[in-house]
Amino acid sequence: MESICGSQKFVFEQVGGRCRLVCEDDFRSVVETEEHRSLRKARREAAEKERRSSKRDEQRKKVAEFLRLKKFGSDVNAPKTSCCGFFSTYPLQEAARDKHWKMVLLLMQCGADAKKKDSFGKTVLDLVDSPPVRDHILQLHLRRVTEQEPRTKPEKLIR
Fold this sequence. Notes:
Layout: E1 2-5, E2 8-15, E3 18-22, E4 27-29, H1 34-69, E5 80-81, E6 88-89, H2 91-97, H3 101-109, H4 124-127, H5 131-147
Antiparallel strand pairs: 1-2, 2-3, 3-4, 5-6
Keywords: Methyltransferase, Transferase
Protein name: Methyltransferase FkbM domain-containing protein
GO biological process, one term: methylation
């Protein structure tokens, strides 16, 4: 099939149910090439990575705001002590006491330790009433523990 547009002559060929466009000097395929697929995939992956990065930054801002409002330091594992120094608590336990489950999960994702105990000897797992939330906290804690490299002491050589 031939078509004339202005001064250029275009020829269309049908190959395997798809059309190909043939110009006088060039041959352009309407069918997507492997290069185009890989470029599109790379762009999609970069956009997804950027989206995840911005979501992570937003979550860190929420955690920082929570720590500031509850008068904790900037560390998610740093305790807050009372004015006399008798009582201490951690951000994770404070969020669990407030039943702020999203913040509990955000703190866990930011590295808060679920096994830290307050001055009454309670961990965050002791404060959580909901079994699904408790299971999710345990999964996050176990995932972080297994991802860390085991700390082994160097063996002494016996001769």
